[in-house]
Amino acid sequence: xxxxxxxxxxxxxxxxxxxxxxxxxxxxxxxxxxxxxxxxxxxxxxxxxxxxxxxxxxxxxxxxxxxxxxxxxxxxxxxxxxxxxxxxxxxxxxxxxxxxxxxxxxxxxxxxxxxxxxxxxxxxxxxxxxxxxxxxxxxxxxxxxxxxxxxxxxxxxxxxxxxxxxxxxxxxxxxxxxxxxxxxxxxxxxxxxxxxxxxxxxxxxxxxxxxxxxxxxxxxxxxxxxxxxxxxxxxxxxxxxxxxxxxxxxxxxxxxxxxxxxxxxxxxxxxxxxxxxxxxxxxxxxxxxxxxxxxxxxxxxxxxxxxxxxxxxxxxxxxxxxxxxxxxxxxxxxxxxxxxxxxxxxxxxxxxxxxxxxxxxxxxxxxxxxxxxxxxxxxx
Length: 380
Description:
Elements: E1 2-6, H1 13-27, E2 31-36, E3 50-54, H2 68-83, E4 87-91, H3 93-106, E5 118-123, H4 126-131, H5 138-147, E6 150-153, H6 156-166, E7 172-174, H7 191-196, E8 203-208, H8 217-227, E9 233-238, H9 244-253, E10 260-262, H10 270-275, E11 278-281, H11 290-297, E12 302-305, E13 320-323, H12 328-339, H13 342-357, H14 361-376
Parallel strand pairs: 1-2, 1-4, 2-3, 4-5, 5-6, 6-7, 8-9, 8-11, 9-10, 11-12, 12-13
């Protein structure tokens, strides 16, 4: 198949999943065209089956907003025409699915319905729970869903939210997020990295995100402050975003800045996960929680909130612990219990690796291939 993929290129779960899906499809012999503002951050090295098309949007001072959505639609139509795409897979309803829908309308005069590309849309969460929940965007998101040939959601939680908020005219299929467990596995030789980070045999907590308010970065810091009063520990922050400056100031004001490392955006996170003992994710809403799954694949137990998509793949007391939203005290208590009990930590770590294998990339890519074929055969 010839597949176009449009996604957010920046740091975040949706872009990571879309890019890893494209790479896996290319490995299986499909031709994949990424159509984006910039190259996705996980695209990596050259592949003979992967092509990247940059979307350049003009800016004009009379208009308040840039023309990215329109430029994306034009580029999708162009690539679909010249590369004869079978499927365009839009990750996020807005702007990607909406732009792909417009691209098809641009091609109405040049291709019959039987020859035009099928539109697959994957909902990742923010497009439903934040953007779609806003009254100014609700109608546009619903239109993008209903005009897609097929729609998937990354969790049962997100599927339910979509049905509740939009009452779509078509079914929403669940295809969970995935992880390449051949790549995401605990690396045994971490001495050099530990020396670079000056960990000095301390326990290591880690948090990976785009530092948006939903990630509740201050809860991570408050939890860590309680942890390190009982256990010598270091906290690694990976990523960047709007809450970072406030978090850095909070760490300084509360005297824990020397034990907190803000590492910024890093594409290769496996070495960092390999030195970590625990992942903290106190999010107020995760449609799935890919960072937690990637940590589990590297044998890192997780402490997360009991909401969103987390309970669908994290079993309380088996892979880590689920706690109530904002319950920093419980999060710290469970963290200390794990970090001070080597036998329990080893058991949880082994359980995490085993659970992550159930979400290996191959199984999920096969589901997407079957999904694409159903669209091409007119079954959806």
